[in-house]
């Protein structure tokens, strides 16, 4: 068995490590595999010879060094200049242990003597597969360096906890087995207390309840489950146990930040007869009505005010600094949230750095644009204690399929101001449209209460679309923090378990030269649900924006509580996608 591959390194980078190659591999025996290749650029810098492609034209003779700011294709230097051979062998000692030896054609001209001492083109390595996802390896490199490595392989589509470690849901109780007056009349305080207590045990907050004829309406906020369908199912199970016998239907209203989003109307008889049916999800869904919910329950029925305070750890990483590829700060964060009325939210976040080296970064932004992001080093150096957020937000429903938000205060580390947003998102629509307008003022470097002189009006119109098969797209067009105008395109895939990975690119009217290194803003987005990693119910997600460099062009204001992500998770599109969790 053999294979041939053609590749290019540093295709959109600065050209500092650019190189091209053609490589062939061959399995000689079941345990021995050999590789030989021809490289150019970095891979043709040791023991090189005249380019064999020169037979196709003189343009292949010379490779012009093209180290720039990155972000563009330097196709004019591909496969040009001197070439050199490289190769290696791989020996499978047993099913888990393998030995690798290679001959490298990279002379490390720029690094040798600075980053390390290159004495030999020979590299040796030994790797051991501890299990199907973990590999340990050790290397002896270039006659002067030892290396050790641990690799963890993950499958975003498979949760580490398998089907999960959720506590069993309470059984459904047929109405003829529910004592007629066990919990009192629906208007009694005893019924309210019983309902709230039972929901709280499931990680669900009661926001209000009411009754219309033979329908019991319950408004909830899901605080414990990654999927709203599971919170809906657990709520319905509880209602079968305590609702009076004359109640035929349950309407579960899903709300967030005090505004109703979706209503799920269920037949009590379906719950009683389908609990153990093999086709329960499909049969139940066919008799369930999911609709937009704009009206709040009567104020006297609502469980307000709501408050929550606590302490949690934080880690703030930074990647790709040439002097230190990985930097990070870590510490503790104090957070608070107070909701005196439905839709009105006061929140704050204070971070105390305990360890870290973000402030050790000595790279200068060097931007010709307003330093809306390249001053991040100055914010990291100013203080170990910082007020990251302190906001008041109002959430509301202007009409059917419409959602609104106004947020004022210290919005993020570097900016405060006022942010306004409106979103159109029908229940079962793959398309959503939004608009956001912000007035932002740059904060003092200590990230407390002071402001600097820089201010700007910024905002975007946005389109969101779900293509099916877990793929999503988002297009934002508008004005960014540095005053540049352009668009950001984001493409992502979100698996059924909530694991999401995507990439984005922003192009504005700032030239590549003015933008600086990287030429335009781009990065990779990863969102990992804590439930995926632990198997235990949780709404917490670990979010990371991985980018090679942080510049000022294409920088967007970071506003907490943006509408699309919150609303989408409670609507029919997501409920249908995860409907099987209703019974979990």
Summarize the topology.
Layout: E1 2-9, E2 19-29, E3 32-41, E4 83-92, E5 97-103, E6 122-129, E7 134-141, E8 145-152, H1 189-201, E9 204-212, E10 215-222, H2 228-242, E11 249-256, E12 259-267, H3 268-274, H4 280-286, E13 289-292, E14 306-321, E15 324-341, E16 344-356, H5 376-382, E17 385-399, E18 402-410, E19 415-424, E20 431-443, E21 451-468, E22 471-479, E23 485-494, E24 500-508, H6 512-515, E25 521-529, H7 530-534, E26 541-546, H8 563-568, H9 572-577
Describe the protein's architecture and organization:
There is one protein chain. By secondary structure, this protein is mainly beta. Among the domains are: 151 residues, no CATH class; 129 residues, GMP Synthetase, Chain A, domain 3. The chain contains nine helices and 26 strands. It has a 13-stranded antiparallel sheet with strand order 14-15-16-17-18-19-20-21-22-23-24-25-26. The protein has an eight-stranded antiparallel sheet with strand order 1-2-3-4-5-6-7-8, with no helix packed on it. The longest helix has 15 residues. It starts with a strand and ends in a 7-residue tail after the last helix. 30% of the residues are buried.
Average pLDDT across residues?
89
Low-confidence stretches: none
What structural category characterises the helix and strand content? mainly beta
Distance between the termini: 47 Å
Kindly state the percentage of residues in helix.
10-25%
Query: Biggest sheet, in brief?
Result: 13 strands, antiparallel
Shape: globular
Strand order of the largest sheet: 14-15-16-17-18-19-20-21-22-23-24-25-26
């Amino acid at each position: 068995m053999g294979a041939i591959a053609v590749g290019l390194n540093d295709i959109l980078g600065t050209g500092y490590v650019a190189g091209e190659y053609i490589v062939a591999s061959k399995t000689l025996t079941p345990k021995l595999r050999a590789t030989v290749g021809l490289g150019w650029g970095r891979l043709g810098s040791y023991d090189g010879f005249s380019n064999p492609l020169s037979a196709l034209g003189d343009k292949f003779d010379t490779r012009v060094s093209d180290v720039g700011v990155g972000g563009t294709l330097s196709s004019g230097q591909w496969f040009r200049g001197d070439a050199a051979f490289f190769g290696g062998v791989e020996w499978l000692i047993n099913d888990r242990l393998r030995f690798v030896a290679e001959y490298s054609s990279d002379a490390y001209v720029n690094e040798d003597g600075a980053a390390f001492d290159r004495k030999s083109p020979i590299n040796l390595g030994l790797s051991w597969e501890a299990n199907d996802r973990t590999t340990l390896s050790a290397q002896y490199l270039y006659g002067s360096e030892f290396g050790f490595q641990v690799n963890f392989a993950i499958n975003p589509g498979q949760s580490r906890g398998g089907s999960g470690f959720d506590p069993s849901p309470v059984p459904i109780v047929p109405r003829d087995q529910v004592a007629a007056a066990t919990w009192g009349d629906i208007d009694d305080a005893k019924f309210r207390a019983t309902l709230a207590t039972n929901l709280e045990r499931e990680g669900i907050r009661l926001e209000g309840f009411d009754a219309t004829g033979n329908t019991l309406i319950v408004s909830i906020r899901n605080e414990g489950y990654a999927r709203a369908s599971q919170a809906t199912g657990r709520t319905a199970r509880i209602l079968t146990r305590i609702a009076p016998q004359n109640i035929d239907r349950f309407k579960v209203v899903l709300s967030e930040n005090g505004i109703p989003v979706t209503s799920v109307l269920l037949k009590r008889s379906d719950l009683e007869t389908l609990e153990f049916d093999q086709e329960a999800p499909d049969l139940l869904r066919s008799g369930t009505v999911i609709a937009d919910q704009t009206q709040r329950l009567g104020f006297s029925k609502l469980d307000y005010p709501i408050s929550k305070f606590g302490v949690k750890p934080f880690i703030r990483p930074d990647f790709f600094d040439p002097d230190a590829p990985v930097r990070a700060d870590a510490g503790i964060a104090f957070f608070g949230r107070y909701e005196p009325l439905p839709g009105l939210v006061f929140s704050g976040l204070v971070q105390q750095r305990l360890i870290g080296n973000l402030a050790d970064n000595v790279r200068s932004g060097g931007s010709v644009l307003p330093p809306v992001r390249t001053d991040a080093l100055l914010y990291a150096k100013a203080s170990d204690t910082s007020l990251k957020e302190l906001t008041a937000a109002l959430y509301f429903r202007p009409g059917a399929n419409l959602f609104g938000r106004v947020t004022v205060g210290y919005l993020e580390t570097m900016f405060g101001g006022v942010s306004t947003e409106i979103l159109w998102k029908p229940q079962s629509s793959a398309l959503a449209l939004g608009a956001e307008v912000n007035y932002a003022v740059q904060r003092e470097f200590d990230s407390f209460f002071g402001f600097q002189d820089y201010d700007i009006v910024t905002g975007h119109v946005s389109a969101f679309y779900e293509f099916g098969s877990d793929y999503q797209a988002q297009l934002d067009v508008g004005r960014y923090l540095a005053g540049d105008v352009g668009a950001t395109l984001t493409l992502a895939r979100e698996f059924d378990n909530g694991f999401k990975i995507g990439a984005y690119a922003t192009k504005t009217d700032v030239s590549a030269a003015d933008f600086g290194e990287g030429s335009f803003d781009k990065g990779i987005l990863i969102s990992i649900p804590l439930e995926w990693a632990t198997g235990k119910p949780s709404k917490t997600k670990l979010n990371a924006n991985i980018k090679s460099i942080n510049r000022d062009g294409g920088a967007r204001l970071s506003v907490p509580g943006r509408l699309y992500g919150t609303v989408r998770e409670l609507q029919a599109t997501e409920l249908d996608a995860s409907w099987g969790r209703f019974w979990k």
